[in-house]
């Protein structure tokens, strides 16, 4: 345990006193529909970046908007404290699209405070959890520290990007170009969750390869009565090819070389996860399921924390409106993704998938590929800088020991920070699996927001004292 | 050969003289967007029915709109001629949806006359060929006869419905309820095509079973990083189930009992079709393909004229917009259809498909089915009433012998006329395979329209003389 600095209590009191103001600032950010994947929201993405710049300047940081070929990146610094490690905080201001809009119970961009039957309060809006709510826990922590002490406990830089949800290609060149400016001792990434009610630092993250595949057969849509059977149906072909990517019996991905370099999780790690993580019934029960799909021989948690996966994220072809249309379409397309673990190369996985599709094409059919992001997995060592003080600080705030966990999601910037900026990144966040990130009615618990702010105050002071 | 009545020539001359007026009336009907499958076009469907009523009354028929639970049916009669057989003409005034609208080169509901490089003129609009253009060949023939002779050569009734493209359930009860009123000697259905440049009567029609299948897994859309692999993906499940409906090697449908009652086409029929019908390269080449898909051992024409088929007409699930979204959706759906030949029971085929889907469902997954139409195949005997006079009349108009052919499409009313009204129906039409029925830029050749009108004049007089 690190020593708790004596100047911590007044900051935590300030956080508690200012909570309503912190919330109203978060609501302001949530009202900006910064959907990065939709071109019509480019102006909203810029507005969210500008909003963050102003907030950071307002609490004494030097902040600026950095242009990229896509959405701008917010960079801010307070490098005045002479002592302690220099931390680089990462978050993103962009959000997922909101469709299907009809399944939302309130306007996704008009944040609402909902009180559950058990009295728990939740902030409902697109981005409430992923990632605006989480980003604001850090900024509000900085504000409380500034208001109380006037100075930061350690040197702090922030990078808040706007293309995390769109797999935008611009962050890597940006980090590379600003390598010297952004170099620090500890990376902090706030885009992950807790383990139920237990505070957690994510130390194993999967990578991801996203790919869009479009199959084309005839030169135009055909009448299925006149041409059906005899003319190749691209939907059926797509179904056949996509269903061949997974072995029905073992649930394993069939692509050649897909598991090359993938190691089995260590028995002691599996044992620890079985102790701390929810069992299959609990994990799947939250979303109405009871039986794990996917690879046999692994629990649901193992499958999502340390095994690679294949998912079809979207499929479209032919007539999908109301009623029926006896069309034999000219094309069909799907968006698929692979989650990668340590040892897998995103470039090779993408090539293996594309080769598999090409090899399965019969005569008269063509394929077009559109890549959507690619990143390797990232694992943080047990002795990474700042990991122990951060775990201790989290434990103190939440009243129980913090744990290290894996995460099925992909946060490419963790690998980027290591590969480009040469530092390990601690993934600390306060989200929950039931936050409905990427889904209708996305929410963030008020407790996550409040204690998240307090957690950062403790963590930053712990770094200063370490 | 039947004797050509001496009063035929002045009627044909009248058709030629009035062609521009006939065209402008057709354009008027084409401008009504009577898309039966879309509820917002219900008023347009009624408007098209009313338009037809007025036209038929204008040429001396007693015409009326008959209400159904769906779109109204137009019924008209001129039963004054005492002599000859009584014919019942069938057509439909509804049209297919127009999407994808961006692939049309002109407004689908603003008919345009296009002149091809070779000088051929084509009427471009939704419904130009299927079926408004064809229906108007018959009505304009009646108009020319009335203008020339004042009386019809035979008793004529018309039924023009508005739910052919939507698989509406209302025609069968309607025909049943009006059985006595609609009883006639010869059915005429104008919703088929020629064989290239050769006039043809379709004597083998496939039936159809349409079904919509929706699979549901989790209770909400999930983040594919957090739940992927472990939670069942309904898109992947749908792909697997749909691709299992056809055997990859033989191309045959795998549903138990699917081929029960299906007879091989007679060797002499196959031989005749090989002589008159386009070969695979020609048939498929028109739409940019060269290799037949589907069942091995059959030509493309055999597959579409006399073999049952399975098609996926539409599929939809997950995120299908621009960019990428790492969603694991809660549901996915597809519209599929089976074309049936003589001997297959639509009820059994539907049950077999639904059972196949249900049997393939893993735990935690549910399925919902929405039926879309079902009808058996229909074959017209060589000695059916009116077949020989009609073939002779067509041959005289087009200057070459008319042939009998099969058709891959499904026109349930042919079986309905037989089963409910007790008469064989002759399927006579002037469409072409390249008319882009159900596709963008649907067209009808001006020659089809003009000589189609003349053909009906000859056929009706041939019936009178037979």
Automatic annotation (TrEMBL), chains A, B:
Coiled coil: none annotated. One of its GO terms (molecular function) is peptidase activity. It comes from the Bacteria. Pfam families: M20_dimer, Peptidase_M20. One of its GO terms (biological process) is proteolysis. Residues 204-364 form the Peptidase M20 dimerisation domain. The keyword Protease applies. InterPro entries: Cyt/Met_Dipeptidase, Peptidase_M20, Peptidase_M20_dimer. Keywords: Hydrolase, Metal-binding, Protease. PANTHER family: BETA-ALA-HIS DIPEPTIDASE, SUCCINYL-DIAMINOPIMELATE DESUCCINYLASE. This is Peptidase M20 dimerisation domain-containing protein.
């Amino acid at each position: 345990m690190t020593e708790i600095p004596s100047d911590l209590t007044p900051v935590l009191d300030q956080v508690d006193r200012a909570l309503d103001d912190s919330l109203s600032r978060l609501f302001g950010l949530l009202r900006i529909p910064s959907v990065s994947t939709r071109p019509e929201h480019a102006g909203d993405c810029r507005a969210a970046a500008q909003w963050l710049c102003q907030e950071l300047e307002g609490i004494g940081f030097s902040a600026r908007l950095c242009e990229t070929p896509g959405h701008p990146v917010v960079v801010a610094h307070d490098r005045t404290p002479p002592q302690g490690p220099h931390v680089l905080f990462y978050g993103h201001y962009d959000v997922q699209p909101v469709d299907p809009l009809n399944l939302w119970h309130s306007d996704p961009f008009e944040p609402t405070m909902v009180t559950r039957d058990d009295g728990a309060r939740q902030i409902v809006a697109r981005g409430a959890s992923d990632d605006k709510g989480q980003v604001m826990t850090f900024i509000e922590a900085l504000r409380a520290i500034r208001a109380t002490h006037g100075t930061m406990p350690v040197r702090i830089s922030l990078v808040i990007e706007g293309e995390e949800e769109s797999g935008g290609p611009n962050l890597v060149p940006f980090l590379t170009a600003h390598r010297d400016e952004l170099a620090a001792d500890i990376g902090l990434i706030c885009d992950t969750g807790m383990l139920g009610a237990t505070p957690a630092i994510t130390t194993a993250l999967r990578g991801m390869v996203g790919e869009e595949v479009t199959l084309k057969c005839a030169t135009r849509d055909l009448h299925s009565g006149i041409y059906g059977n005899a003319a190749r149906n691209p939907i059926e072909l797509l179904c056949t090819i996509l269903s061949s990517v997974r072995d029905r019996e073992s649930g394993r991905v069939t692509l050649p070389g897909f598991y090359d370099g993938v190691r089995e999780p260590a028995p002691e790690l599996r044992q620890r996860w079985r102790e701390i993580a929810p069992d299959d019934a609990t994990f799947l029960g939250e979303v109405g399921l009871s039986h794990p799909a996917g690879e046999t021989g692994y629990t649901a948690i193992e499958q999502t924390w340390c095994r690679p996966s294949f998912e079809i994220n979207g499929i479209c072809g032919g007539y999908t409106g109301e009623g029926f249309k006896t069309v034999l379409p000219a094309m069909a397309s799907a968006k698929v993704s692979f989650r990668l673990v340590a040892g897998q190369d995103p470039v090779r996985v993408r090539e293996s998938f594309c080769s598999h599709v090409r090899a399965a094409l019969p005569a008269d059919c063509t394929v077009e590929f559109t890549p959507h992001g690619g990143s390797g997995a990232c694992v943080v060592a047990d002795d990474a800088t700042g990991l122990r003080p951060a775990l201790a600080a989290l434990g103190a705030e939440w009243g129980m020991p913090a744990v290290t966990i894996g995460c099925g999601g992909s946060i490419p910037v963790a690998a980027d920070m290591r590969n480009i900026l040469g530092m390990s990144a601690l993934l600390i966040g306060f989200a929950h699996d039931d936050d409905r990130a990427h889904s209708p009615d996305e929410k963030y618990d008020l407790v996550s927001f409040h204690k998240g702010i307090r957690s950062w105050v403790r963590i930053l002071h712990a770094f200063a004292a370490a």
